[in-house]
Structures are given as C-alpha cells and as structure tokens.
C-alpha cells in the first residue's frame, strides 16, 4: 500500500530540485570538448586526429584554433592553425590534420593557444574557448590549453 504523503513529498522534492539539476547539467555541457584522439605517421608527415564536440545549443559555423606543437624535449616545433570548420550543436565530429615534415614520435605536447576564429549566428565570441575541455588519447602526447 502506498502512502499518499510520501509520494506527494517525493513529487514536491523532484519539482523543486529539477531546475537546479537542469542548470548544473546545462552549465556542464555548454562548452567545446577537444580530444586529441590519435597521431599516425604518414610518409614524411604526422596525421593528427581530433574528436571535437560542440556542447552549446547553437551551431558553430567555423572554429579555428591556434595550436603550438612541442617536441618531446619541450621545445616549440611550430605554431599552426587548425580549421575545424562547422561544429553542429551536440554532435561529435572527427577532424584530421596532416603536419608535413613532422615525425609523430617527436610530438610531445600540443598547446591550444586560443581560438583564432569562432563564428556563427548567435555564437558568443568566447564560445570556442570558455570552459574548453581538453584531453588526449594519444599515448605520450599531452594536450594543454
């Protein structure tokens, strides 16, 4: 037998907590997540694969990040721009970039220096960098920002 007072209290608690839970979930997901997924040697170049997800409610029409590539001894090898193109809201995308003249085994760290371009209708200027989440699955290569 169900007690009507308990279910009413549970419903009231759920109703009162729902906005707080939704706000916490929204705040957590309102960013871009950038994962260095793999590096692969291709002839005289290093192919760098990223998994990127736009956690915002609006599409990003173009996202270009300035990246600094460091060798395994911590020295700057080069600075470059990675154009991730369009990032639809809440949809993961894989983007690959070929860096000529670089051995993947020599890549030690990748620094996301900032967003050179972050554009789209209704997209805030800092949408690509605010609360940017970075991670790496590529063994031996750290990603920082």
Automatic annotation (TrEMBL):
Key word Signal present: yes
Region forming the signal peptide: 1-24
Keywords assigned: Signal
Protein's UniProt name: Tat pathway signal sequence domain protein
Organism name: Ponticoccus alexandrii
